[in-house]
Amino acid sequence: MNHDIVFSRLNEFMIELPSWGFADTGTRFGKFNQDAAAVTVDEKLADAGHVNKLCGCCPTVAVHVLWDFKPDQAAAEVAKLARSSGVRIGSINPNVFQDQQYKWGSAGNRSSAIRKHAVEHMLDSIAIGKEVGSNLLSLWFADGINYPGQSDIVARKRWFTESLKVLHAALPPDMTMLVEYKPFEPAFYATDIADWGMALLLARAAGPQAKVLVDTGHHYQAVNIEQIVAWLLDENMLGGFHFNDRKYADDDLTIGSIDPYQIFRIFCEIENHRFRTGSVPPIAYMVDQSHNLKPKIEAMLQTVDMAQQLYAKACLVDRKALAASQENEDLVQSENILRGAFLTDVRPLLAEWRSSGGLPADPLAAHRQSGYEARAAKDRLAKHGKKAGGAYA
After folding, report:
1. What is the pTM of this model?
2. DSSP string, 96-132
């Protein structure tokens, strides 16, 4: 594939950043604060704008309703803050897992009053999306059960179906509802939406504007995620990704830090769908990472750079040659075609693409030279003071 086509694909490859990825985060066992980490939504948006200025491919920021919108703050004000930082508000993420009333679940709770409360919050989130110009409602549920016999599995499925139908009916015509799945945590016996098949069935039951969201960290070990992606694409049910990497479970590590070949294979299936059908449906490429130890902005720059590299490598696969070798059952050559693309050093190509758009050839180096992090740390330390650490108990 010639460079002009790869450049064209890179021009279309947009990556959404998460507001929470710029804030102090931790694990159940503790949190180690960073002086430069964002505290307020305007600081998160400023950091995201800085990354977009350096990378040129991150125009939107995912927001969490309870974390990023104050009760007395108009949603339009947050959208204005985003624009002033050179970005837009992207996916809207309701929070139906944090409040005490969700101890036994939200949309899967046996209490109709609590289910209603959860649905009302998600309806409010849709209204916020309309106000800020978002076209994505991103749903993740912590609902599940920890012990056999604790709850009726089928009843919970039906409660979820009812709730998602109500939400779908309230969507504006241009908004997509993304249904995410996760096999475990915090539920350890049965998560209500545990895998892609469950998410697909619930999305189809909800309506045509509902699609499946694939979080690359939300799978058991050795699950073939690219096969899931291929099936969802063929069924026109792939809505988007939450990108991260992991060694064991949902570790939220930076993309490609553990298994870059996996993300490459996922991109290969997307490009194979384009080769087969002539187009790719709208896919929301979103980062979902909590950078507990790495500097927030540097981790995000690493992630964006690696995502672009792996996507560019997937675009280099000779699809016609691959189809011919597959037709001949030439296993060695088929694998070598993929492997050859993966082993290609695309960093010079990316540097050329960035330079052609007036971007720094090396965003991380440009960030370090800018002094942005030191200034942010100084300003935020003066504004918020030294932050207290968090602990498990």
Report:
1. 0.96
2. -SSSGGGTT-STT-S-HHHHHHHHHHHHHHHHHHHHH
